[in-house]
Amino acid sequence: MLSKDQLDLLREIIFLDADAAAAHAAALLRVEPPSLRLRLEAFRKDHLHHLHALNAFLVRHGQPEVVTCLEVRHGPLVGCPPVKTKGPLLTEAALTAVAGCEHLVDRSYALLLREEWPPEVETLLRCHLAEEREHALWLRETLGKRPWASTLAALP
Q1: What is the Cα–Cα distance from 1 to 56, expressed in whole angstroms?
Q2: What pTM was estimated for this model as a whole?
Q3: Does residue 152 fall inside a structural domain?
Q4: Which InterPro entries does this one have (predicted)?
Q5: End-to-end CA distance of the chain
Q6: How many CB atoms lie within 10 A of CB 70?
Q7: By the 8 A CB rule, do 94 and 102 touch?
């Protein structure tokens, strides 16, 4: 049986995964290179899987499902991109915003794992943390390499 504090923590991480899925969806509206879009879409699906798996755990244990809102409510991915922002700059801005979101989710999973959890929950959290770290690593490497930068030189 989970304590009220543990249930609250699981609900919070579900909301963070929903926010991350929304951030990835918003970034997909701004990122053009297909290889980057494929990874962002895969990461968005990972976040949706995380929130569904954690919600399923809650429901199996007699708790109500957490209803999430999959829209970006704050930050640089809200609304339409600035009119003067061109493709490569837009890509970099979107990936940087998503990287910040991933850092928050990664850190939150790591903090959750400092708590004692039943084996089923701990396994879920560890699996989700491993995926979050994969997301963060890819974003760091991609932002470092800037594969879209070659198109920046072609801008007028």
Answers
A1: 15
A2: 0.85
A3: no
A4: Ferritin-like_SF
A5: 62
A6: 14
A7: no
